[in-house]
Amino acid sequence: MNIQQGKVWKFGENIDTDLIIAARYLNTSDPQVLASHVMEDARPDFLQHFTKGDFIVAGENFGCGSSREHAPVALKTAGVSAVIAKSFARIFYRNSFNTGLPILEVKETDEIREGDTLEVDMAQGTIKNLTRNQTYAFKPIPPFMMELLESGGLIEHAKAKIAQGVL
User: Fold this and answer.
1) Listed residue (3, 15, 4, 10) closest to 115, CA to CA
2) How does 96-135 read in b/e, with b if 16+ C-beta sit within 10 Å?
3) Total domain count for the chain?
4) In whole numbers, what is the pLDDT of the chain averaged over residues?
5) Tell me, what CATH number does 29's domain have?
């Protein structure tokens, strides 16, 4: 998980959870079904061009709206390596870590363009834009949150701790 490379899919400000996964699909909790509809209201052809391992880059307040966990589950299951944005809605922030989806706060998202190739180094806290030869630092992820990501989310983390006899 430390270094990931992929292409950028650029979105704007205030991308709410209804744009990430529309409410009409909330009658299921099947991650594969959710993933098959991710971002379709924001960009109907998104999944036709998206490649697992790519990144979503956005502006302020990504994940605003409802508190549903379906949104980060859909993104993670679709294969989004990380969501990079200027800021995140707080409940989306926590839900993302709980489900094991890396989200990175970077103020310079305006400098990143659709189609750029990024290399994200989680350990170093850096994002290299290989297309534009630029490097950005992201807000450090607290150690416990990194543990959640490395475990695949809160449930998997708890299972591992139980198996170790820690919980």
Assistant:
1) 10
2) bbbbbbbbbbbeebeebeeebebebebeeeebbbeeeeee
3) 1
4) 95
5) 3.20.19.10
